[in-house]
Amino acid sequence: LGGAALTVWTFFLVRAWVIGHLPARSATRGTFARLCTGCAVAAASLVVLMASNIAYNTLVDAFAMPNVAYPMNMYGAEQWMVMIMALALAGVAEEPVFVGVAVLLWPRLPGRTFVGVWALTSLARAGIHLYYAAGAGIETPAAVVLVVLWCGAWSGFNLFLVYRTRRLWPVMLAHGLQNTFGAAAG
Asked: If you write DSSP's letter for every residue of 49-90 in order, what string do you get?
C-alpha cells in the first residue's frame, strides 16, 4: 500500500506541476461514455498484457530458461492473501510512474518522439522486472533480452492507450487484474 500510495502521489505531484503548462480540456462527453471508454481500454490493455505474457513464457520454455515469475513462498492463507493484494496493487504502483508521468511530461508526441518515450518507459519498467531473468545461468543475457522485449510490448501498448484516451485508471486496473489472474492460475 505504501508503494502504491507513493507512486500515485508522485503522479499527482508531476500533474500539478505540469497542469499550468497545458491548455484546459473541455468535458464534451458524459460520465457513462468516459466509463465505457475506460473499460474498453482496460480490456484492451489486459488482452495485450496477457498475450505478451504468453509470448514471454513460450520463449522462456523454448530456450529452456528458468522462469522466476513470482519468487514468493506461500506458507498459508495469510501469505497468499498478502501476495494477491500486492500483485493487485502493482498496477497502481507502476502505471502512474511508467506511463502516467511520461504522458504528463510529453503531452503531445510526434511519432519519432513517441519511440523515444516508449524506449525510456520500457527500459525503466524492465529495470524493476529483471528478477524474472534471475537464475538463468549461462542464458542470462537472453533472459534479460526477453524481459526487455516483454516490458517493451507491455509498456508501449499502455503508453499508446493512455495517449489516445487520456485515461490512466484502465491500464492500472488491467495490470492489477492480470497479476491477480496470473497468481490465481499459478
From this structure: HHHHHHHHHHHHHHTT----S------SHHHHHHHHHHHHTH
